[in-house]
Amino acid sequence: MGPVHVISCGAVTPVGMLAATSAASLRAGISRLQEHDFMVDRAGEPYVGGWCPWVEATGRVERLLALARPAITEALAALGQPVPRVPAIVASSEVPTADVEPFARRVAARLEQELLPFELDVTVVPQGNAGGFSALRSAVDLLEQRRSPVCVVAGADSLLDADVLDDLDESSRLACPRHRWGFPPGEAAAALVLASAEVQRGYRLPSIGQLLSVAVGHEPHHARAETPCTGEGLGAVISEALRASGTRGIATALCDLDGERYRDREYTWATQRIPPELPFDPTRYETLVPSIGTVGGATAIVALAIAACWGTRGHHSESDILTWAGSELGLRGAAVLRTGPDRRWSTP
Fold it and tell me: Which structural domain, as residue segments, surrounds residue 186?
């Protein structure tokens, strides 16, 4: 893939209502995991997770929409100039195969309506944690085919839903005193505005990062499969992303490790599959889960937005940042982002 620039970003997380404040809080290690005011688990204990208390909507879809709207608006507003009708690809909650099309159409229609006066052609990718990488791949294809000068890629999800929490609790997947190997649920949204290098120069747009590579794959032995996971899918996408990026070195990796045994074992096996000549240190990684919880379909784009904001402040600006994630039904994705201070267009 050719050079793709991150023009601007936006984010809403439990630790910040803007991308910059979220990035600063996460950089400082601030955690917003807290007990829910009234929702309790099977043992009568309050659910603990990363909530955005200023969001008053109820239900997974309504909260997803309430989070996505300000994140996308922030990213578009940062352009500082009128935005023509552009495609927007939004990663969201992972849903059963039979429900994908009706869910995607319903959420896309609501987003297009609620994001007015911005004119966006919204496509929803309901593929869970790694769905953001699938959205990035589609956006890069659009830019390379010159079908749009810019493209919005977003991710939004919320696990703050009574049915979702009850299902996770019954499956013993939530972190609590009764279950050590679980994860804290969370919610968040983030958005990136992407443009090709040609458009970024031609329109004199800012650049807060450069997307060097995106890799998407599938893990056949996923969490719901009957065969044991060997890290095949995750190892393949990390290797592909690193190899295609031509990276100058990886400062850290932002990932979605959340405390579940399956994810820990998968990562352990995946690290053994990455060729030794690639610049990969399996001990250098960070996860956003201790600060904001597991954020589902928002995971990949939140990680990239945070990494881009860190770069504008000089954090990890001498090396690149790897991001990776995995969805429950087998989708795996990885990307390499080159960051640095805000680079405005200038003549050679």
Answer: 4-202
